[in-house]
Design a protein that fits this description.
The protein has a domain at about 5-80. About 65% of the residues lie in helices and about 0% in strands. It has helices at about 10-20, 30-45, 50-55, 60-65, 80-129. The longest helix is centred in the C-terminal third of the chain and has 48 residues, at about 80-129. The protein is elongated. InterPro entries: Probable_transposase_24. It holds the Pfam family Transposase_24.
């Protein structure tokens, strides 16, 4: 988990598995090992970003069943479903806005390059006259 390049690479399933694993990378018992295997299989199938951040559709929820009311597994003490849904919405919004900003920067750059080309052409025409 520590080697993950981005925070998006860390999922609830990965945190749950890490929390139920000994330092020697052995699972606590057979039930945990079976649950971890299910989570890993579901996580590999559920690569889309929508299911990855949703607490209702992610690999952990599909493997272990629905959450208890007002609880969220794999996110530590005090996390509530409403907090997680707000954070998920905000994260998705930031990703969308960053993509839009990148696209706009590319457009501005291409316009500036085109404008600079026109100005250079006009300068050469003036000098040659």
């Amino acid at each position: 988990i520590r080697e993950s390049e981005t925070h998006d690479a860390i999922t609830r399933g990965a945190v749950w598995i890490r929390g139920h694993t000994r330092k020697s990378d052995e699972f606590l018992n057979k039930e945990v090992a079976n649950a971890a295997k299910k989570i890993k299989i579901k996580a590999n199938k559920n690569i889309t970003d929508v299911g990855k951040h949703s607490i209702k559709n992610d690999a952990l929820a599909e493997s272990l069943g629905p959450e208890l009311r007002g609880r969220v597994r794999g996110l530590g003490f005090g996390a509530t479903p409403s907090q997680v849904s707000v954070q998920t919405y905000n994260r998705e919004r930031v990703i969308m806005l960053e993509k839009e900003l990148k696209d706009l920067k590319n457009i501005v750059h291409s316009l500036l390059v085109g404008q600079m080309g026109k100005m250079l052409t006009q300068c050469y025409e003036v000098k040659s006259v």
